[in-house]
Every structure is written in C-alpha cells, then in structure tokens.
Amino acid sequence: MRLLKAVSSFFIISLSAFNSAAVDINVDINGKLYVFNEPIKLADALSHIEHPELVYWPDAGLFLASEQTVQQKHALMTRLINQLALLPAQSSEKAQLADFIAWLSGIRVARRIDLPVEFERARHVRKSNPLLQEGLFYLRASYVQPQVLLLGAVTKYQADISADSIVQAHELHHNFAADAADNSWAYWSVSGAEWHKVGIAYWNKQQVELAAGAMLYFPFSSSVLGGDSEEINQQILMLLRNWVR
Amino acid sequence: MFRFILLSLVLSSLIGCSGTLYVYKENLKLLFKSPAVVSPDRAYVAASQYDIIQVNIADKQAIMALAFVEQGQDKFISADNGFVIFANGRIVRTAGFIDNLLHVHNLTADPLKQSFSVLGGRRWQYVEQTNTLTAKVNSAQFNIEGQRVLTLLDSELRTVLLSETVHPENEGSFVNFYWFDETSGVLIKTKQHPANMTDAVTVTFLSRVNRILSVIPGESK
Known about the structure:
The structure holds two protein chains of two kinds.
Chain A: H1 2-20, E1 25-29, E2 32-36, E3 40-41, H2 42-46, E4 61-64, H3 67-86, H4 92-106, E5 111-112, E6 131-132, E7 135-140, E8 147-152, E9 158-160, E10 167-168, H5 169-176, E11 185-189, E12 196-199, E13 209-210, E14 215-218, H6 222-225, H7 229-241
Parallel strand pairs in A: 1-7, 8-14
Antiparallel strand pairs in A: 1-2, 3-6, 4-5, 4-7, 8-9, 10-13, 11-12, 11-14
Helix pairs in contact in A: 3-4, 3-7
Chain B: H1 2-18, H2 20-33, H3 42-47, E1 52-57, E2 60-70, E3 73-77, E4 83-87, E5 90-95, E6 101-105, E7 123-130, E8 136-152, E9 155-168, E10 174-181, E11 187-192, E12 201-204, H4 206-214
Antiparallel strand pairs in B: 1-2, 1-12, 2-3, 3-4, 4-5, 6-7, 7-8, 8-9, 9-10, 10-11, 11-12
C-alpha cells in the first residue's frame, strides 16, 4: 500500500510538473521582467544578474507576489491613518507619521521566501535552488550603496557612509530621529529579513556598528501610536521584511 | 519489482535533469572521500581534476575544490557544500557555514590587487560584515618580511613572506600572512583572520604548489 502511494505521488509530481510547463513564470529581476514558459530554478534566474561580483549578497532576496501581504499593508495603513486622526493638528509628530504613511503607500510588498539567496550555493545545493513555478516572483540582488537606509520616524531617509567606515546606530538615532521616534530603541538589519533590537538611550546604549548597505528603523513612540505602539511597530517591521526594494 | 521500477524511474529522471552537474558532484565526492585527503601528497593533488586547497582551522583540516572562477574571484567548495571565496588571495566571503563572512567593503582599494613586491608599508582600511556580528572596521598595514623556505608536498619552496598587521577598531591586533612563490610571484599559502572565525584560517594552494614544482628541474613528477 505504501508502495502504491509512493508510485502515485511520483506520477502526481510528474503530472503537476507537466501542467506547470504550460504556465508563464514571471520573474522580476532587479526591476526587469523576464517571462519564462516553464518553471525555472533560482540559479537560472540568478544567471540574469549583471555584475554579480558587485552585488551586496547579504540583502539579496526572493519574493513571491502575495495578495495577503498587500492586504496586510493596507490594514496597517488603515490603522496608522486612524492613529493619525488622534494626533493634534499642526504637531510635528502628526506630520512625521503622515510622511511615513505616504512612504509606506508607495512601497511594493510581497511575501519573502525564507531562503538566503546565495549565488554560488544555488548552483550546487538543491535546497538552495528552489524551482520557481506559478506566480510573479521578485528577485532582488542589488549593488551596495554608500549609505545606511533610515526608516520610520526619521528626519532623513539615508545617511551617507564611505566603503571603509562604519557608523554607530545610536549616533544615527541622535542625528536623524524625528520627534515622533521612540527614544530608547531602534532596529537594525543587514538582510532585511531579520531585524535586531538595539538600545540607543543613555541607560541601555549598545554598540552596534553599521556599514554601507545596512538599514535602521526608528520606531514611533507610544505618544504617537498609543498603547499599542509596540504591536504596531512590530507590524511595520514585518512589512519591512516583505519590502521589495 | 515495483520498488525497482520506481527507483529506476526516479534515478533516471534525476540523472536526466542534472547531467553534467551530477557527474561533477560525483567527482567531487570521490575527491573528498579519497583516503589521501587526510594527508594529501603530490600524486593526490596531481590526479585531482579540480584545483584544490588545504584549509586548516585550529586542529581541523579540510580539502576544498575550485568550483568557479568568476570576475576575479576564486570560489572553493567543501565536502559539505560550504564555500570560501577569495579575491586576490584574501577571503572575502563564505557561505554555507554556521557563521559566515557576508561581505568585505572597500575591496577596490585592497593593496593585494597589486604585486606583493610593491606592498611594503602600504596601508588601507576595510569593513567586514558577518551574519553574527555588527560591522567591523579594520586598519591594516603591509610589511615585506623577507625570504622564507616552505616545505610543501614534501618539497622545499623559496617564498617571500608578506605580513598584514590588522587593527580592528576598539580591539587588539592580529597579523595575516601571505607566502608568495619567489620565482613566479604566485600566492601559495596564507594565514588569515576573517571576522566570522575565532581561529586563524591557514590555506595552502596545493594545485598551485604542484604546478610550480612541476616546472622546477628535479621536482617534476
């Protein structure tokens, strides 16, 4: 019986592979859309990356278009807009939250595939080389930029940094946090997939050195987001994880 | 019988799909499983279809094979599918290990891009990013230490030793070493401290050594 099940699963897999061959596979690779008439391996998609030696592989990512993720973004925006209405008119915090909502509305989100995009291992290791089938995929593998991206309650969206230097997270907070920012914590990331909490106040300051290509999120304070600020900031981080840059 | 048919179907589909890659990986498995991998001699190195290196970390040793040469980077693979990637002899990235060196910033300014003979006194600064630590900035200075004789693959080779004293910010210092074949200028051995490793990594470029020995009268085999 077990054998029969195994044989039938084999043919089901074969059949589904045959069926999917007729489906167009769309892969947006660094903003350029490629259409394949059969499922392709990640390694094949990666072969379309120009100048891979210049890519900042730590923040390369693979995403799948997802209505659910888009709906999560809309739900979050609604929640932020509701919060915006509670803030005093003409306050700087209100203007800063409005700026962030506007920024959020303009970003593309999709479901991040939980897999490091590794240029070499994709060509050698089966589990690093998934088959892309059905749907619209986004593959992002961009060159490192001489800046740290600043997100959330910020006065500036990036801090310039040279290739041979680093910058402390708490210094960036000191220089670029908006009035609406939480004064104790920030979140940093290299990959975009994982975000790490860092203390930036005098009482909890941690030494976190950031290099070009890193990202830093300044959460909004409870005076801006209310009693649910922790939860809302976590929802924002979840969305940033699914941000197709 | 059914089991045999099923297995045949699965195997034939696998071979049909992967083809050349399958043969390549089988050859790599044979290379890594050879008894000589423990103590590689010239016969083992010469018989390898792929350029190989010997990697020593603390008391551990491994052989890695050259998988790709791309855009000036040499990419070696281990038996367990880990990658170590070199640019101009420097370890610039690793993949597939628990702790990895994700990126080295400022490589365009790496003095190792030039001939070792002009590097005495040269300084530079670079930043390492790992998956476990925040970024680490290093200031480094090169020094030509002079001639050294190395015994590799049971033969003596005259080399020039280049050192690179590295001062990570807010930490102590360490020294990377690079041994270049005196005649050809080829890097044949290096000892480095990439940020993802707690111990130094010593790499011997065995195939390069074998090629150098092959053209030395009395050493060719």
